[in-house]
Amino acid sequence: MTATKAGRTAAALLERAWPETRSYPVADLARAWRECDRIVCFLAVGAAVRLLAPLLRDKHDDPGVVCVDEAGRFAVALTGGHGGGANRLAHEVADVLGATPVVTTATDATGTGALDALGLPVEGDVAAVTRAMLDSVVDGALGGEEVTLTADVTWPLPPLPVTASDSPRPPCVVVTDRIVDPPRPAVVVRPPSLVVGVGASRGVTAEEVLALIHDALAEAGLSPRSVARLATADVKADEAGIVAAARALGVPLVTHPAERLADVEVPHPSEVVRRAVGTPSVAEAAALADGGELLVPKRRSAMATAAVARLRPRGRLAIVGLGPGARDLMTPRAVAEVRRCGYLVGLDQYIDQIRDLLRPGTHVIESGLGAEEERARTAVRLASEGHAVALVGSGDAGVYAMAAPALDLADDTFDVVGVPGVTAMLAAGALLGAPLGHDHCAISLSDLHTPWEAIERRVRAAADADLVVAFYNPRSRGRDWQLPRALEILGERRGPGTPVGVVTDASRPGESVALTTLAGLDVSAVTMRSLVIVGATSSRVVAGRFVTPRGYAWQPSPT
């Protein structure tokens, strides 16, 4: 919505960034209100409030509104903070316009998880329980009225300032797919735990399918809001009544080949069904095709069958690289994963770097050097129990860090998300110049987990291949001879003037950068916090910078 030339100019920036957007003059606000999910008003806040007031009906249905001032300095989330998406929109608009997002919602302001922003259906007194959660957060610690959380099974929820309880005590949060009446004030969170398998004759109506589903759920005391999907056989994928029923429930329709359904063990197989569609069961087999527990066996109506199964929750393990240390070298995705996890596992000194990012209610499991395998086991165990877990490490978690030991223990019962980070090698390379401009490799000189004979073979192979080499874990008080030996091996193939860079505490307080040569390196200045990069025969120093030329001349193809 625009009213001035400045507003139209700023709106044009949003249109270029988001081609699906449309511009409306202020006079068409009512039409925009009907047609749009989110609205950006380039108006003074007071003017926007007066124009919007007659249109406001229900925060759950109204579009989210962000107001931007004439100079484009602030993007203010005005109405529809969570439900309408205005809080998120304020940040998105600010990113495009270079403005400051202004979000005054209490949960956002305090970093507290919002019940109506979990991405799951919620029922009950959200406002009262949220107030109790906010009151319990005192200076970032739990201190006020205790909010309890009771769950049938563990789901990978984001952090909430709640205390687990075997039975709900108000104020409370209850996570269940069952129809319950908890003591008030309470919020019931509906997890996506139910799969409804459906079979039908040709020409079945959506009304019959929906009535059968609702009867089946009601008989078992289950909430329709926990239905994650409808499932059926491939041959029913275009059955209009089933397709329309899924659309009415707001869930996807998943179909399975008959041969897959035939392999699912069910309590009520039918030879009639086998002859018709190639599997002895459609409804029960489709409900159970992805595992789980059958809660409602096959029920029939005149032209349809339905069965209900409960899925086992899948935990979530995010393996997060925090970068070399500086906050501005930590990726936005890493920040988001740290803030969304219910459990954070990591080395104590790395967790200290990000403690200010944690939301109230985050469970922190930290340990010192040498406990890497235990951290990996803990993270995998928590994810297998259904929690949302972040396992953090410096640099990139997949480079001499926690991803490998964790994934070596992981199975397929939970989801795994990898979040890349800026490695020490990349951070050091940027400080030195462009030492990694051509082929290169990384070698750890720590022989605590790898025999030195294997390490020496790798160093010799890198020397023979004329690769730039980045040495991780180059030297400690107890390991002071490995680096000189590695340099000696490289020196057999490279001249004494080969550039060598030593970067210690890259991007951290006390950062030091030294550029020297293979012959001039003082190994006594190298520590475990250092990264040593040794150039190839083509590497050189240009204007005080370490460079390994790429050589962009095309080589002739072999004939």
How is the topology of this model organized?
Layout: H1 5-17, H2 29-35, E1 38-41, H3 45-52, E2 64-68, E3 74-79, H4 86-97, E4 100-102, H5 106-110, E5 122-124, H6 126-136, E6 137-138, E7 141-142, E8 148-151, E9 163-164, E10 172-175, E11 186-189, E12 194-200, H7 206-220, E13 227-233, H8 240-249, E14 253-256, H9 258-262, H10 271-277, H11 283-288, E15 293-300, E16 304-310, E17 316-321, H12 332-340, E18 343-347, H13 348-354, E19 363-367, H14 372-384, E20 388-393, H15 403-409, E21 415-419, H16 424-432, E22 433-434, E23 440-444, H17 452-465, E24 468-472, H18 482-491, E25 499-504, E26 512-517, E27 530-534, E28 540-542, E29 545-547
Helix pairs in contact: 7-8, 14-15, 17-18
What does this structure look like?
- With 559 residues, the protein is an alpha/beta fold.
- The strands form 7 sheets. It has a 5-stranded mixed beta sheet with strand order 5-11-10-8-9, covered by helices on one side. It has a 5-stranded mixed beta sheet with strand order 14-13-12-16-15.
- Helix 14 packs across helix 15 (403-409) and helix 17 packs parallel to helix 18 (482-491).
- The model has no long low-confidence stretch (mean pLDDT 93).
